[in-house]
Amino acid sequence: MDINKSSNDEYRQFTAFARIDGAIIGVMWVVSFFCFIGNLQMPMLGLAGMAIGIYSIILAAMRLRKFRDRILGGRISFGKATLYSIMTYFYATILMAVGQYVYFQFIDQGYMVNQTIAMLSMPETAKAVTEVYGMDPKQMIAILQATMGTIRPIEIAFQFLTLNVILGIIISVPVGALMRKQ
User: Fold this and answer.
1) Exposure pattern of 77-116 as b/e (b: 16+ CB <10 Å)?
2) Which segments cross the bilayer (predicted)?
């Protein structure tokens, strides 16, 4: 009976720490997302957003190492380290999806599409679009307007959620391998 209680307590502790780390990483991702949006007006915010996004991956690994060393006595298997990392990114992804939903539902009001259209209307961007995609920029603008006009904010958030879950799983495998310690 004590064995089951012990493993149950360990699981609760495991998930609690993953939720806390996920909340920290999720807040970083939301800030990074808002930097991306701000990048449309102030290009330096794009660099800040990218730096925050990259640092969030490093911080997640550092938090896993801290959990391993302080809570688990310096030992964690590859599977547990990977699962912890996946759970952390899963919780971060949920927070990020909520942030994106709130943004697209209540704040954006077409801002992102309008900024993209303005950018596609500039001569140098129009030339690049024609060269890269082989498409007239006016056609691309029409497609963008038609597509973005039909996608609901919840669908946008769900698409990002799906992508972030997949990326979180992919990132978790090497992090789990690096953080495992027997």
Assistant:
1) eeebbbbbbbbbbbbbbbbbbebbbebbeeebeeebbeeb
2) 20-39, 45-62, 83-104, 156-179
